[in-house]
Inverse folding.
């Protein structure tokens, strides 16, 4: 089974922050099929299951804070599961997507937490650009800050494109998604 993890922070105060764009993408995917998220009592996560193509996938929003995302991922995965992680990346310009079959954490603490659990680079990822960060703002204030008015204008489009990328990874494979979405 494919397990798709969107990284973010639990709680209303973080819902519409840049660091939670992974959660927004999973909300879009669940909404497309009307598959609601349910709280797991076994794992610290909200989980939804839906069909993408011919495959049932698990959509997982860890309810640990970002730096401890790996704890929820470890509890969710079985050896045969295929993992895809969706997350924000300050190194990419606003709205840019990068699909990768593997890679480093790139300084992202949530990704590092997942890597600590599943191993270096052992999972696919979709990075969603939220940068560049202004010099006058700390990294934590920037990623935990709300979307700017300019970002809000096309946030839905960015989230939809990232959800389309997830669906393509599931139906056509990560190489095809890389060829389609890693432009510009």
């Amino acid at each position: 089974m494919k397990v798709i993890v969107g990284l973010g922070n639990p709680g209303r105060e973080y819902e519409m922050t840049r660091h939670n764009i992974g959660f927004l993408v999973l909300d879009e995917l669940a909404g497309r099929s009307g598959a609601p998220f349910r709280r797991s009592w076994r794992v610290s996560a909200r989980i939804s299951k839906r069909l993408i193509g011919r495959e049932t996938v698990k959509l997982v929003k860890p309810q640990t804070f970002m730096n401890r995302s790996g704890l929820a991922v470890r509890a969710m995965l079985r050896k045969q599961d295929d993992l895809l992680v969706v997350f924000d990346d300050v190194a990419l310009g606003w709205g840019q997507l990068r699909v990768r079959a593997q890679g480093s954490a790139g300084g992202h603490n949530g990704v590092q937490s997942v890597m600590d659990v599943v191993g270096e680079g052992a999972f696919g990822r979709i990075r969603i650009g939220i940068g560049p960060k202004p010099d006058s703002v700390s990294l934590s204030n920037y990623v935990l800050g709300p979307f700017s008015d300019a970002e809000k204008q096309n946030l839905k489009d960015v989230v939809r494109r990232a959800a389309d990328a997830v669906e393509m990874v599931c139906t056509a494979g990560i190489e095809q998604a890389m060829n389609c979405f890693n432009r510009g």
